[in-house]
Every structure is written in structure tokens, then in C-alpha cells.
Amino acid sequence: MNRVNKLIYAILAILIIGSFIGVAVYEQMLKGQAPVAVIYKDKQIFQRVYLTKSINKQINVRDSDGHYNLVEIKDGQVRVKEADCPNKLCIKAGWLNKPGQMAVCIPNRVSVVIEGAAEEAQQPDAHSF
Q1: Burial class (CB in 10 A: 0-12, 13-18, 19+), 74
Q2: Which Pfam family is an annotated match for this chain, by its short name (predicted)?
Q3: 91, 110 in Cβ contact below 8 A?
Q4: Which residue from 102, 124, 112, 99 is spatially nearest to 61, judged by alpha carbons?
Q5: What span, in angstroms and rounded, lies between the C-alpha atoms of 76 and 69?
Q6: What confidence score (pLDDT) does residue 2 get?
Q7: Three-state DSSP class for 54?
Q8: Domain 36-121, CATH 2.60.320.10 — does that match?
Q9: What are the domain boundaries of the chain?
Q10: What span, in angstroms and rounded, lies between the C-alpha atoms of 99 and 29?
Q11: Contact at 8 Å (CB) between 100 and 120?
């Protein structure tokens, strides 16, 4: 091998190692961040709440016809506590705390979606109900 080839291999090795280190550092930064509960009403963001242990609250999501969903946030988890929909599937979803989990109330057009902290900046184009 001549000198130029050695230099090229050294640069490639540094770039590959650097990219692995960058990914590892990025993943470590994300581990310390709390997931985000995003509450949607009629395909619009109604409210965003970080799921930290210190937040305990209830959010009432109502429409103009008086239909409602009561969303409870407690101990780093979220759930639909009450709803006036006929089948109550949104309530049966139970407590949510991991990115990707969701509870959907089709009759009331309400959904609760858990996003990771890194996904917060990425807005979905639309949600289907």
C-alpha cells in the first residue's frame, strides 16, 4: 500500500468511528428526556404534556355538542379516565407511557398519542380517525 491509500483508510476509519460515537451520544441524550402525551381533537393538537412524575392533572376535552373525554395524567402516565362515547374503547386502552402507544375515541374524534421527546419537533401530517 502506498501512502495515499493509508491516508484514505485512516480517514475512513476516523469517520466511521466518529459516526458510531455520535449516535451513541445522541441516544444517551434522549434517554433522560420524558415522553410527551399529545392530545388531539378533530385532527388538531389540543394539548401537549410532558409525562414527568411530578405532573398530576386532568384535562377535559369537550366539543360543541357537549361530548367529552376526561384525560388523566398521573405519575408519568396518561389515560382516558372518562368518556361519553358508546363503546368506551378509549378508556379500555388503560394507562399509556411508552412512545407509540395511543388511545383513540372515534365517536368523539379524540386521540391521545405518546411521542418520544425526539419526536416532539416532528409534527404529523395528519391523523386518521
Answers
A1: middle
A2: NusG_II
A3: no
A4: 112
A5: 19
A6: 87
A7: coil
A8: yes
A9: 1-32, 36-121
A10: 16
A11: no
Phi/psi at 119 (nearest 5 deg)? Answer: -80, -10
**pTM exceeds 0.90, yes or no:** no
Alpha carbon distance 128, 102 (integer Å): 13
**Please, what is the average pLDDT of the chain?**
86
For the residues 80-96, what does the mean pLDDT come to? 94
Alpha helices in the chain (DSSP H): 3-31, 89-92
Beta bridge partners of residue 79, listed in sequence order: 72
The answer to whether 110 and 33 have CB atoms below 8 angstroms apart is: no
Of all residues in the chain, what percent carry a pLDDT higher than 70? 85
Helices (H) and strands (E) in the chain, counts: 2, 7
pLDDT in tens, 2-48: 888 889 999 999 999 989 888 877 776 666 677 899 999 998 999 99
